[in-house]
Structure formats: C-alpha cells, structure tokens
Amino acid sequence: MTAGTTLPHGTTTAEHELAALQREHGRPLFALLLRLCDGDRQRAEDLVQETFVRAWQHPEALRADDFDSVRPWLLTVGRRLAIDARRARQARPPEVGDAVLENARVIADHAERSAATLDVREAVKTLTREHRDVLVLVYFQGASVAEAAQTLGIPPGTVKSRAYYALRALRRVLPGYAADLR
C-alpha cells in the first residue's frame, strides 16, 4: 500500500488496495475475531476495523516478500488486538448497564442521614410509651420478638402487634419515609 495517488473519482490507490485487502481477507479475520470475542459481533467488528487501520498504517509489513499472503500477518495482528482488548477489560471494573443503575438504591450523604435521624427521633416521641418501648428494643437495639417480650414482661404476640401499630403510626407521621418503613 502506498501513500496513494489520487484517482479520478477522488479516491487514492491506498484506499483501493485497502478495500481489496478487506474483500479478500475480511471474512476469515472476522470469523477468527468473533471466536476470540466469545461471539460479541460488535467487538469483533471493531477489532477487524482496527486490524485494517494497522495494515493501512504499516504498508511496509504488507509488502514484504517473505510470504505469499498477507492473511497470516492480518490474523496475527487481529489476534493480538483481541488479546489486548480482553486484558484491558479484565483490568478495569465490569461495566454496569443502565437498568442496574436505575434500580440501584441511592445512598444518602451524611447531612441527609442526620436530618432523617432527627425526623425519626421526633416521630418516635409522638408514639405511646408502649409502642416506643417495643420499637426501641426490636428495631433500634436488634432484640428478637422473644427477647423483647421477656424484657417488657408481655406476650410475644403483643410485641408483634405493638410493633405493627407503631410502624403504622410512624408511616402517618413520616410520609416521605414510608418506603423505608416497610
């Protein structure tokens, strides 16, 4: 491939040589790269294009008299590009699709958490003493229903019902937090 002389149609001889090279060796190169890319057609097509860009950038390698065909050179370059691309993907964290990001929970910053804590504290103060005692034991101190029942000296069923009604009362007082109280 040469730097190219301009032909009557505005194209260069280098472009014609590259097009001929692609017609002759494009399919086998694509087949190899498709296998190396685990069936990812888009990635294989990108690597085919990159291989032909390398061929265009290094015409001296394609003119060598040491071989009858340029196909081995093209396949070697394509294979090395595929290996490099795989290594680059493995070196960085995996990409996350938009669907995953849309469903990801947004974590509040410190100021938002502090404000939410104050809101919840004020809301808990509005509960009756019985409801508040159950919530503190079960939700804030992590006690089981049986442990809370033993500490408060009430049946486990009563602990469950008080926790249910306490959360229900909090949902009314904290409407913006209702999803977090389920």
Summarize the structure.
By secondary structure, the protein is mostly helical.
Output the keywords.
182 residues; mainly alpha; 9 helices
Describe this structure in words.
- The protein is mainly α and 182 residues long.
- The chain contains nine helices and no strands.
- It has helices at 13-36, 41-57, 59-62, 71-91, 98-103, 110-125, 129-140, 145-152, 156-173.
- Helix 2 (41-57) packs across helix 4 (71-91).
- The mean pLDDT is 81.
The poorly predicted ranges are none
Q: Estimate the helix proportion, in percent.
A: 55-70%
What best-fitting shape do the alpha-carbon axes yield?
rod-shaped
Distance between the termini: 69 Å
User: For the residues shown, what is the average pLDDT?
Assistant: 81
**SS class:** mainly alpha
Helix tally equals 9
Radius of gyration: 34 Å
Estimated share of beta-strand residues: under 5%
* DSSP strand tally: 0
